[in-house]
Amino acid sequence: MTDISPPTSAPHWDELDRNAQELIPALAKQQLMLATAESCTGGLICGLLTGIPGSSDVIDRGFVTYSNEAKQDLVNVTAASLENYGAVSPQVAAEMAAGALANSRADIAISVTGIAGPGGGTPQKPVGTVHFGLAIKGQDVRTFSALFEAMDRTDVRLASVAYCLKLISNFLCMPKGR
């Protein structure tokens, strides 16, 4: 799977909706079920996808894991990962995606954890830092990272949704035997 460049500006909701409307039939065509594990997006991805007719055939469930406790309880993120790497890290994004896959009937799971702002950033993890996980049955979890600079809270969240949709779409376009 090739790397995907993160958006440099936040997309409009209708652009996200168009992308999501293309994703639902693509998942159906490949007979794949999707689960989401969302922290900084707070369920926006799953909400967007389930607003589309036919989504019940391809969306299994969405986990909103905003707190560290929810990450541990719902998608099996370890206390050690939270302590050693922090909630906003590739390691936690990977565990979130793996946990969403393990705790669902899905074939593919996407996760997102980040700092949407306006507070919460540090020099090492500035506002706009977002990590993503992509878990596919029978494969190692892949992680991706983005820094959405000069965006407000809403824009970071929308850009994160757009990036997740691109990750899923990119996976669906890969040749079989991925």
TrEMBL record:
Residue intervals of the CinA C-terminal domain:
20-171
Positions the record marks as coiled coil are: none
Q: Which InterPro entries match?
A: CinA-like_C, CinA_C
Q: Which domain of life is it from?
A: Bacteria
Q: Which residues form the signal peptide?
A: none
Query: What would be one Pfam family of this protein?
Result: CinA
Task: Write down what this protein is called.
Answer: CinA family protein
Q: Which organism encodes this protein?
A: Roseibium limicola
